[in-house]
From TrEMBL:
<dbReference type="GO" id="GO:0043565">
    <property type="term" value="F:sequence-specific DNA binding"/>
</dbReference>
<dbReference type="InterPro" id="IPR044810">
    <property type="entry name" value="WRKY_plant"/>
</dbReference>
<dbReference type="Pfam" id="PF03106">
    <property type="entry name" value="WRKY"/>
</dbReference>
<dbReference type="InterPro" id="IPR036576">
    <property type="entry name" value="WRKY_dom_sf"/>
</dbReference>
<keyword id="KW-0539">Nucleus</keyword>
<dbReference type="GO" id="GO:0005634">
    <property type="term" value="C:nucleus"/>
</dbReference>
<keyword id="KW-0805">Transcription regulation</keyword>
<dbReference type="InterPro" id="IPR003657">
    <property type="entry name" value="WRKY_dom"/>
</dbReference>
<feature type="domain" description="WRKY">
    <location>
        <begin position="164"/>
        <end position="229"/>
    </location>
</feature>
<keyword id="KW-0238">DNA-binding</keyword>
<dbReference type="GO" id="GO:0003700">
    <property type="term" value="F:DNA-binding transcription factor activity"/>
</dbReference>
<keyword id="KW-0804">Transcription</keyword>
<protein>
    <recommendedName>
        <fullName>WRKY domain-containing protein</fullName>
    </recommendedName>
</protein>
DNA sequence: CGCCTTTGACCTGCGC
DNA sequence: GCGCAGGTCAAAGGCG
């Protein structure tokens, strides 16, 4: 038993972190129940308003015979959810589960394509959940697909329109261009940039106003998880909490 | 060598 | 299903 647990823990460490770490988190609570010799996972509460089970245990695979086997008569619960494998780092894994578990899953970035057609503030989100499940001392990884109605994550999205001859302006951040598309009914293209800082997925689009080409429209999407590389920040430590916070900032001398 | 553009291909949702 | 439009990928090349 202890060997199986250590083995499972080692396997858990090898699992790669998945998903995006940007944006608000979707908080889901799970519990399992038993129906017709099959086990289901359903999410409850959190930001979820309504959910439905989208996938059962895998129909085929290593755990097939196990899940089709009726539970032992003297067991009230066929298995325990012993742990979660989290998508995002920084969340605290619960120590143990009997019937319930909670987890934090980071939804994909709230791009227009991911939540297309959802203007009411709600969207359907399908997430893949990897659970480490224990059954009579054996640990098995199970992948669920859960479809839930969630709040659309708020993305800071702000656009600037300015009269400018040139499109590239120094906004204090470094950007890497990753796309260029022609805009319908406009002679000018639209350029797509991503923030160059690793781990930051802020994007911006730059295009000329199709109604008045002397104006440039710059749209920023997302919030930087770092500070501007072109600014010197002064930090101060709070005596009570020990946390550091920004006390001021200044453009370094010599930079135009 | 590291970081940047360029650019066609690719993906996905939507309307017909 | 098909084509369009918007958005993204990734291989290749540019440049200090
Ligand atoms: Zn950034």
């Amino acid at each position: 038993m202890a060997a199986a647990s250590a083995e499972a823990a080692a396997a858990a460490e090898k699992l790669p972190a998945r998903g995006s770490s940007l944006g608000s988190s979707l908080r889901l609570k799970f519990y399992h129940y038993k129906y017709d010799h099959q086990y289901f996972v359903e999410d409850h509460g959190g930001f979820t308003r309504r959910s439905e089970l989208h996938g059962l245990f895998p129909a085929a695979g290593p755990g097939e015979h196990f899940f089709r086997r009726p539970p032992a008569a003297n067991r009230t619960s066929g298995f325990d959810i012993s742990d979660f494998i989290f998508f995002d780092e920084g969340s605290t894994p619960p120590t143990s589960f009997a019937q319930f578990g909670t987890g934090v899953i980071t939804p994909p970035p709230a791009t227009e394509s991911a939540y297309a057609g959802q203007s009411s503030g709600a969207a359907y989100l399908q997430v893949e959940v990897v659970l480490l499940v224990r059954f009579v001392g054996i640990y098995i990884y199970v992948i669920y697909m859960i479809r839930a109605e969630v709040e659309r994550p708020r993305t800071e999205r702000i656009a600037f329109r300015m009269k400018s001859e040139v499109e590239i302006v120094d906004d204090g951040f470094r950007w890497r261009k990753y796309g260029k598309k022609s805009v319908k009914n406009s002679p000018n293209p639209r350029n797509y940039y991503r923030c160059s800082t690793e781990g930051c997925s802020v994007k911006k689009r730059v295009e000329r106003d199709k109604d008045d080409p002397s104006y440039v429209i710059t749209t920023y999407e997302g919030v930087h998880n770092h500070m501007s590389p072109g600014v010197v920040y002064y930090t101060t430590q709070d005596a009570a909490s020990g946390r550091y916070f920004v006390a001021g900032c200044q453009i370094p001398p010599g930079s135009s």
